[in-house]
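Risk register update: the risk of archive-format incompatibility is retired. Evidence:
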Amino acid sequence: MNKFAFVIHPLDCSDVARKFNFTKYMPDALVERALKLLPPIKISSITGIQSPSARAEGFFVSCLLTARQMMSLPRPFVLNKIIQAVRLAEKMGAQVVGLGAFTKVVGDAGITIAKHVNIPVTTGNSYTVATALAGAKKAATLMGHNLKKARVTVVGATGSIGSVCALSLAKDVNNLTLVGRNEAKLHILADRILYETGLAAEVTCNVKAALRKSDLVVTVTSAMDTIIEPEDLKPGAVVCDVARPRDVSRRVVEERDDVLVIEGGIVEVPGDVNFNFNFGFPPKTAYACMAETMILALEGRLESYTLGRDLTLKQVEEMYRLGQKHGFKLAGFRSFEKPITEEEINLIKQRAIIKVS
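Archived output:
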């Protein structure tokens, strides 16, 4: 039975209080000052993962820096903290390690980290993209959109993840718009899509104009600030935000009750899995990036599967197949760290219908 580990970190100081209750009485600045000094720690063991053909177990290791610290502290300091966490996982017997949340955003998306440890490292982006696209298409259907008739837009289309999303979506839709900052690169991608799928995609550098007419948006830019605001979206629009930091402003969910913003699907893990840690998900469910690490362990593919910012459609499709082979399923949706049910989606759909009529 292969063992894996997954590196997590507190998104903010309220997450720290989940593990260390006394910190909720402390000022955030004091908590963050303490976190900078602390070594990585094991958070919990993960047991009970059972696919039709294999078993795996693992554990969570935390790099004790908040998301704000990850993005604001000197990069070498942050990378060293993440490397320490992976080395701790290695000492504990992990044979493959996944990078979670902002640990895979800092620097070169895992390449430097992998060079400084002796076990394979993966960002989980292949399965994240696979399940995000599956979730986006399912959410669009729940919102009443016919994918063959819907106007679908990929924002950040010329990036490695964006181009893979566009190539995958081009197989399922008839109206695809590619948005990016470099028009020449957009045309190159559009030519590739036409050659490989037969679909003639539109291209534009005007993100606001593209958003206003879109039914389904997949956004994957590398922008440091949000680029999608409440006024940019039409009633009934579905936005799947794959970017970290987020492309979608929190104002969208606060001010628009007639649009649906999702982060991609929640993955149901096979077996009687117990994470022994509450990270805010329903029982037996996990982030797709966590699941990729589990799938690699179950499959015996102890390799650095997804590293850096280059991603291929072949990787995404293979990881999706491996997930199906081992019994992983799309289990639900999340919006700004909170689960959103199909009943809530139906209410959003009804409000959008009323607004349009």
